[in-house]
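Bug #77: duplicate submission created two jobs. Keeping one. Sequence:
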Amino acid sequence: MTGVSPPLVLKIGGSLQGCAREICTLLKEQAVPVLIVPGGGAFADLARECKVEGSAAHWMAIAAMEQYGWFLSSFGLPVTARLCTPARPIILLPYGPLRSLDPLPHRWEVTSDTIAAWCAHTLHIPLVLLKSVDGIHSGGRLCASVLSPLPTEDVDPCFLPFVLEHRVPAQVISGRSPDRIRAALKGNPTIGTTICF
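Kept job's structure:
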């Protein structure tokens, strides 16, 4: 089965809204089996502006992810409300599965980063986070690999502890580089950060 890409969870960060069309077009062209977890982006920012906390903030932010998912679908990718191992590029509308299972703490420190990690853990498949940065930076430098939790503002505070505790194969790369996206989808080395165990 040479050339067949393994299934992945692929989180498309909300900060990539301006190049979302190009990313979705690339995913359609590559025809790889990815379950796309949408970020929150501008929609989550609106929820933050409401100055709510706890459960209300949690579900408003997940509803914001769902809005971003519909935005991504406008570029020709199908959607699903079911958490499932993908056979093709498909966008997860996360509100239903998360509302049903309610697996994560209700606080702002849990964002779409950790939600995507939970999806990958639940499905037992690797995770790639597409961000507006080259990977995870700490102490002013790009980390090629991460072995333990470290201070960073490039992922949410719960992401690294969750991925390391649950041993989720994960990579963080720039979603602004088509070549890096293609490499990550094929499991090839590229510039970014790999979380190691």
